[in-house]
């Protein structure tokens, strides 16, 4: 008597998710990938580091099967350069800098006031010449004076956005937000921009370290710019893979467009947004290793 082969629940789930993705690919949907926590480790700042050993190879295999891969990430052009140097073509639409930029075969789009890029350049130059500025995070972390800051690593920078790191053990984040607002308001005015209407300044804090992040981005008539804001210009239907950091609104747009959303867990960073995001996804995976397994099953199921 031949033993009956049965999939364990985890394998059944991998098969289910891969079937969903194959069906969308056969409907000519592209796949938009979040990077941090999905393709790249979220703490791989100056040097990019894939989430799994096989993630980049399996993405290359997907492209070899004519799957159009795109991006939806907070990172900038450096991420595209890194992925292409590692053999990816990225022929799908690419949302970068948190929704400020869409790179597409149908034409590129940039959101924000026309003067916003110049403002970011001027603000960066000004802040780097203030007495509170330090070149390295270690000098901010060990500094005794209050109000110290440094530039965030390349992951946090772009032509349309800038980030600054602060030590929240040394100075409360709310005080640093007020400090940056006072400094940047006249620079914005010099570029004919208004804070809150054209420029957004925010502060966030890591829950497991004293690292605080001052983020400077553009706004559209007072409304925040995120990945979903610029997705309206995408012509080709898509499905989306994300971990929930800055992804909730794009998740909703994806579902409205008949795409599926794969939520990937395992990111060690913590954010209240992740729970909200995961409630809206089509399917959940525990970590990027499961995602790699899904992609491998998709590669096998697609015709050569």
Verbal overview:
The chain is an alpha/beta fold. It has helices spanning 9-26, 55-64, 77-85, 116-127, 137-142, 173-190, 227-231, 248-256, 272-280, 288-301, and strands spanning 30-33, 69-72, 94-96, 101-103, 109-110, 149-151, 162-167, 199-205, 211-220, 223-224, 238-242, 261-264, 283-285. The radius of gyration is 21 Å and the shape is globular. Helices cover 36% and strands 18% of the residues. The protein has 10 helices and 13 strands. Strand 9 (211-220) and strand 10 form a beta hairpin. The strands form 2 sheets. The chain has an 8-stranded mixed sheet, with helices on both faces.
What are the defining features of this structure?
13 strands, 304 residues, 10 helices, 8-stranded mixed β-sheet, single chain, 5-stranded antiparallel β-sheet, alpha/beta
Distance between the termini: 36 Å
Radius of gyration: 21 Å
- Can you list the strand order of the major beta sheet? 5-4-3-2-1-11-12-13
Order of helices and strands: HEHEHEEEHHEEHEEEHEHEHEH
Bulk shape: globular
Helix content: 25-40%
The overall strand count is: 13
Helix and strand composition category = alpha/beta
Instruction: Give the DSSP E fraction (strand runs of 2 or more residues).
Output: 15-25%
Mean pLDDT: 91
């Amino acid at each position: 008597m031949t033993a009956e082969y049965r999939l364990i629940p985890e394998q059944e789930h991998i098969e289910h998710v891969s079937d969903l993705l194959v069906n969308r690919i056969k409907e000519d949907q592209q796949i938009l990938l979040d990077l941090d926590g999905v393709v790249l480790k979220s703490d791989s700042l100056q040097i990019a580091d894939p989430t799994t050993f096989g993630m980049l190879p399996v993405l290359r295999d997907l492209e070899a099967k004519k799957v159009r891969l795109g991006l939806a990430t907070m990172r900038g052009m450096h991420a595209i350069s890194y992925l292409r140097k590692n053999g990816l073509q990225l022929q799908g639409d690419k949302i970068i800098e948190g929704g400020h930029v869409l790179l597409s075969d149908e034409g590129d789009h940039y959101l924000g006031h026309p003067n916003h890029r110049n403002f970011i350049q001027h603000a960066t130059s000004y802040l780097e010449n203030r007495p509170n500025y330090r070149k390295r995070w270690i000098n901010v972390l060990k500094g005794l004076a209050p109000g110290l800051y440094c530039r965030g690593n390349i992951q946090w920078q772009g032509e349309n956005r800038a980030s600054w790191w602060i030590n929240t053990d040394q100075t409360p984040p709310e005080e640093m937000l007020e400090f940056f607002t006072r400094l940047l308001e006249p620079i914005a005015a010099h570029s004919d921009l208004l804070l809150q209407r054209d420029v957004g300044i925010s502060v966030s804090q890591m829950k497991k370290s004293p690292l605080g992040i001052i983020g400077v981005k553009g706004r559209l008539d007072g409304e925040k710019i995120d990945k979903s804001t610029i997705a309206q210009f995408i012509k080709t239907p898509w499905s989306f893979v994300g971990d929930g950091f800055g992804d909730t609104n794009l998740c909703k747009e994806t579902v409205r467009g008949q795409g599926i959303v794969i939520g990937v867990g395992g990111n060690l960073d913590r954010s209240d947004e992740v729970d909200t995001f995961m409630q809206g996804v089509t399917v959940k995976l525990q970590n990027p290793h499961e995602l790699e397994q899904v992609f491998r099953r998709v590669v096998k199921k697609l015709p050569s």
